[in-house]
Every structure is written in structure tokens, then in C-alpha cells.
Design brief:
Blueprint: H1 26-45, H2 63-66, E1 77-84, H3 89-103, E2 109-114, H4 115-124, E3 136-141, H5 164-169, H6 174-185, E4 188-196, E5 212-217, H7 234-241, E6 250-252, H8 256-269, E7 277-279, H9 299-305, E8 312-316, H10 325-338, E9 341-345, H11 368-371, E10 376-379, H12 385-389, E11 394-399, H13 403-412, E12 416-418, H14 425-435, E13 439-441, H15 454-465, H16 468-487, H17 493-505
Parallel strand pairs: 1-2, 1-4, 2-3, 4-5, 6-7, 8-9, 8-11, 9-10, 11-12, 12-13
Helix pairs in contact: 3-4, 10-15, 15-16
EC number: 2.4.1.-
Family: Belongs to the UDP-glycosyltransferase family.
GO molecular function: zeatin O-beta-D-xylosyltransferase activity
């Protein structure tokens, strides 16, 4: 299959400069400066245990703010990694999973954000317990207050404009993050900053620290990185673009079994500012523990235990999409008429602070839940998507095609009924349907503004769950899952690329 791709650099490819000065004497010099600063801080601030190195700040007017202490870090390390995610669920989750992978190499990882977003990342992650890993350290920083408007399910676009205020305010993380980098640079031979491509502004000062270098994680598939950003994010994306020095490399949440040709195209076309890239995905665990006896296990998993293999379709449109009452009615009617078993996550899209305020409850047709009792479940809270997709009873996934959902469904061998909503999702849907052939289209993107009817939903569910076509997709999904799982095992391509990246930052 030939694809005509416009090689235009999207705002996702926001990059930063890497200044890699590793002179043989630099490590001892750092410690000399550190000791001097400790003495100065002790006499001025009365904090004898303060440890940080103060490199030149970009602005004398904010120098004192950049140098404020952010805690006490005593240990010294060959390499220390700092993770800087965008404060939105898919981005928080993806880079927290990456933190787990890096920490498994006995490298300390420092994950930064606001208190509410770090709490969000911790309580929503599935497949592992971030509190059980001792060398992942969380740093909670304060930023000015921001508006947290509720999502508008009836808006003309599905893009989560309610998150724009928190995105804009997140640039205030620049100063505390820089202060943390200063501090950590004095306790490490090399400081590695891995940042979401939409957080370039926050880490733009990393080049001022001689033993630091930065790596960009685009957060999207290699296939869709050529696409443009939604109009709603133009100003915020431009802000990142305006401070884009050169990055030391790119880390992709994908693998060659999924996107080998498009990863090669990146290198051949030289559309990025670095020839170093590592496809080290999936970041998420590819095997999940059902924890059948766990008190914290979600009730929907207990229900899945009682269903036949591949008999349940999972419906979820991610953390940034709200469906209107009219849309909910059509989906409910389609599910009812399909006669198929289902788990439907029906919750409002996230606000800027997910712990603030009440969430709207979409209205369902009268008597719907009673009619489908025993055949379907409607989940109104946060659902364990990774465990649901990894359950043997799950045979299909109706999805918005966010990249995290795509990579998780691929990992678990579950085909997709693609219903993209915004951003990179339409292109992800093309990848699933046309390239990998493990998905079918629910709605044509050209009919974005048209209501998806119950008949369309019913037909899509039947095609995926009860047809020869659907079974063929399931078989291809299983085969791809096997290849992906093999890639992260010893000797697999993703494991080799991860080993290569770790060797590179330890060089």
C-alpha cells in the first residue's frame, strides 16, 4: 500500500537544544560549586542541608525564584532522569508508564507536575503500582489557580477546550522544574530530561545546565506525527514551537512490529532535528494480573469472569470526550438492538482538575439498563481499561482511537471499531483500519458533524463481534499482539531499542 505523506513538521515535534558537555573534570567541578552553594545557602537561608547548583538563569529578574530550594537530595548517581508530562490524562499516563520502564534499569526517575495531576496519574494507572517502586520520585509543584470549566457535550467540536486553561497555566512550572534540575544536576554525572512535546516551554532552560540533555516524547504514533494540530491548540502549540531548541533524540511509544516503515521514514526524510530515535513501546504493561482476590478489583472484571471468551465489546471514548444525551441515546439503542454483550464506560470528559466539582451524568433511554441487565454493564466511574482489554472475555473495542487506547488494544490483541473524535485520532483510525487491518470504521470522518445513528452503532457492533470479517480481524489482532509482546521480551526489538537508549544515556 502506498501512502502520500506531506512531510510537514507538526507542533507535536516541539524540540529542545541539548548541550552535552562531559569533560573529564566536570563532575568534580560540579561538586566544588555545589559545596560553595551549600555554604552560601546555609549562611543566607539557615539551611545547612540544602544541596543544589545554581547555573545562570535566563533572566536576572527571576534568578532568585529559579534558585529556591525544592527539597533535599543527597544521593549521587551516574544518571538521573526527570519526566515532564503534559497535565492531561493520556499524557500523564503514558509518561508514568515510561517511568516504570526506565526505573527497571536501576535509574532514579523524578516525575514532576502539580499535586492534583500527580495524584490523578497515580490513582488512575493500571497494570502496576507506582508506589511499589522505590526509585520513582514524585515532585508536586504549585502553579497559579486556573479555571476548570466543565466539558460541553453539545459543543460543535469534540476537542476538549475545557483543558486549555490548565495547559496555559502549566507553563508556570518552568521555574520550579528548573530549580529541581539545578538541584539534581549536582548529584548526577548526567541529567536526562524526557518531556512531552507540548511541554517544551517548561524545560527550555535545560541547555543552561552543562551535564543535562533532553529527549522528546511526542505522545503520538509515528504514523500520525505528520498531521497538524487542532485549531483550538494553535496558540499553546505556537508557544512551544517558539522555544524549540534541538533535542538529543526522540522516544516513541510504539514498536517496529506496528510502525516499522513510518519509523524508517522519519530517519530517511530527516523531518526531526535529531537522527537519534528509539521505538521502545509499548510503554504500558503487555501482561496484566487479574488480581481476582483483590479488594480493589473493579466489579466489571468480576462480571467479565463469567462471560465466554471474546464475547464482550468494550465501549469507551477516552478521558477527553463527552457524548451528548442525544448521542448516548443512539449508542444505547444500537447496543440494545445488536444483542451483543458489552461494557460501556459512560462518563463525562475530564476537567482541568478531575478532583474538583461534580460530573455530569449523560441521560440514557428509560428502562435501558433494566433491559440489558445480565448482558451489559454501564460504568459511570473510572474503569480499568488495560485489565478489561487484557481479559479473555473481551473480543472488541469501540474506541475514540486515542494513541494510548490504540497501543493498549494492540498489546492485548483486541480489534477496534474506530470512532475518532479529534486531534490525531482520525489518522490513528486509518492506521488501524487500512494499514494494520485490525479495525473497522464506525463513522466516516468526512461526516464529522452528523449524528451517528443507532443503526450505524448496531451494524458496527455486529460486524466486529458476530461476523467472519470480525473474526478475521480478531485473528490478525492476536498475531500482532504476539509480535508486540515478543518485542518487549529479552532479545525483542523494543527491548533492544530500550537497552540501546539506556546505554546511550549511560555513555
Amino acid at each position: 500500500m502506498k501512502f502520500s505523506v506531506k512531510l510537514r513538521l507538526t507542533s507535536f515535534l516541539i524540540v529542545l537544544i541539548s548541550i552535552n558537555e562531559t569533560l573529564s573534570s566536570s563532575y568534580s567541578i560540579l561538586h566544588m560549586i555545589q559545596n560553595i552553594k551549600k555554604q552560601q545557602a546555609s549562611s543566607v537561608l539557615g539551611r545547612s542541608t540544602l544541596m543544589f547548583v545554581s547555573w545562570p538563569s535566563p533572566s536576572p529578574t527571576v534568578q532568585s525564584q529559579y534558585q529556591r530550594p525544592v527539597g533535599i537530595i543527597r544521593e549521587t548517581h551516574e544518571v538521573t532522569v526527570v519526566i515532564v508530562p503534559l497535565p492531561a490524562q493520556g499524557h500523564l499516563n503514558q509518561l508514568l508508564h515510561l517511568s516504570r520502564l526506565i526505573s527497571s534499569y536501576d535509574i532514579p526517575v523524578h516525575y514532576v507536575g502539580t499535586a492534583s495531576h500527580i495524584r490523578q496519574a497515580k490513582v488512575r494507572v493500571h497494570g502496576w503500582d507506582p508506589l511499589a517502586i522505590s526509585n520513582i520520585h514524585f515532585h508536586e509543584f504549585s502553579i497559579p489557580s486556573y479555571e476548570t470549566p466543565p466539558p460541553n457535550p453539545n459543543a460543535p467540536t469534540k476537542f476538549p477546550t475545557q483543558l486549555i486553561p490548565v495547559f496555559n497555566t502549566s507553563i508556570k512550572l518552568r521555574e520550579p522544574v528548573y530549580a529541581l534540575l539545578q538541584q539534581l544536576s549536582g548529584t548526577s554525572r548526567r541529567l536526562v530530561v524526557i518531556y512531552d512535546s507540548l511541554m517544551a516551554y517548561v524545560i527550555q532552560d535545560v541547555g543552561l545546565i552543562p551535564n543535562a540533555e533532553s529527549y522528546c516524547s511526542p505522545g503520538t504514533s509515528a504514523f500520525t506525527i505528520y498531521s497538524c494540530f487542532p485549531q483550538e491548540m494553535t496558540d499553546f502549540a505556537k508557544l512551544q514551537q517558539d522555544v524549540k531548541p534541538i533535542s538529543s533524540g526522540y522516544l516513541f511509544n510504539t514498536c517496529r512490529a506496528i510502525e516499522g516503515p513510518y519509523l524508517d521514514l522519519h530517519v530517511k526524510s530527516k523531518i526531526t532535528d535529531s537522527d537519534k530515535q528509539w521505538a521502545i513501546g509499548p510503554f504500558n504493561p503487555v501482561e496484566v494480573n487479574g488480581q481476582k482476590n483483590s479488594e480493589t478489583r473493579h466489579c466489571c472484571l468480576d462480571w467479565l469472569d463469567k462471560q465466554a471468551p471474546n464475547s464482550v465489546i468494550f465501549i469507551s471514548f477516552g478521558s477527553t470526550t463527552s457524548v451528548s444525551d442525544e448521542e448516548a441515546k443512539e449508542i444505547a439503542t444500537g447496543l440494545d438492538k445488536s444483542g451483543q454483550k458489552f461494557i460501556w464506560v459512560l462518563r463525562d470528559a475530564d476537567k482541568g482538575d478531575v478532583f474538583q466539582g461534580e460530573d455530569r451524568r449523560a441521560q440514557l433511554p428509560k428502562g435501558f439498563e433494566e433491559r440489558v441487565e445480565g448482558r451489559g454493564i454501564v460504568v459511570r466511574d473510572w474503569a480499568p481499561q488495560l485489565e478489561i482489554l487484557g481479559h479473555s472475555s473481551t473480543g472488541g473495542f469501540m474506541s475514540h482511537c486515542g494513541w494510548n487506547s490504540c497501543i493498549e488494544s494492540i498489546s492485548m490483541g483486541v480489534p477496534v471499531a474506530a470512532w475518532p473524535m479529534h486531534s490525531d485520532q482520525p489518522r490513528n483510525a486509518i492506521l488501524l483500519e487500512k494499514v494494520l487491518k485490525i479495525g473497522l470504521k464506525v463513522r466516516d470522518w468526512s461526516k464529522l458533524n452528523e449524528l451517528v445513528t443507532s443503526i450505524t452503532v448496531e451494524n458496527a457492533v455486529r460486524r466486529l463481534m458476530d461476523s467472519a470479517e470480525g473474526e478475521e480481524m480478531r485473528q490478525r489482532a492476536r498475531e500482532l499482539s504476539k509480535a508486540v509482546k515478543g518485542s518487549v521480551m529479552e532479545g525483542g526489538l523494543s527491548r533492544l531499542e530500550m537497552d540501546s537508549f539506556i546505554a546511550h544515556i549511560r555513555r
